[in-house]
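for the writeup, i need someone to sanity check this before i put it in the appendix. the sequnce is what the collaborator sent (i think, or maybe the updated version? ugh). structure was predicted straight from it, no edits. if anything looks off just tell me and ill rerun, i have time this weekend
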Amino acid sequence: MIRLVPFTMGDADELIHWIPSEDFLMQWGGPEFVFPLTKGQIQNYLGKENQLVFTAKNIESGLTVGHICISRIDAANKSCRISKVLVGSPETRGKGYGQKMIKGCLDIAFRELEFRRITLAVFDFNEQAINCYSKAGFRIEGHTINARKVNQSFWSLYEMGITREGWELDRKEKASFNS
């Protein structure tokens, strides 16, 4: 079980430690950051409006297991974007934390903020993340070829989205399957 808590600058050193390379930083943070990640960049990131930045904590151990952001909050259109999804250290990956972090953000966005639509972008080669988002109910809505230049190659993105209605239907189906 995890709990999403507001990210503070006290979490910055751990986040910096989790980013070992320029490629990894692009996968996690997109073009917003430059390698190596610094506290100054994180401070600028935290200073942006229209976003909620979280650290994911394992409730039992108290250890930080990840980072996630609800960004591009558009209250007028009842929409937002999930971004900066990272299950931290290699030892914590593959244990379902990503799925729990996404579920936590969906609960906040759909239940607390009463949004109608959530989007995200994922590089098309990141099959583990695509599977995680698909299991949470996101569907691929578009494919942008050569979206980002990374070193000497170009990376393509899938745009994924979920509506409140789709999320509610998915939750009902899972509940009836588990009963």
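The mean pLDDT is 96. The CA atoms of residues 22 and 36 lie 7 Å apart.
thx in advance!!
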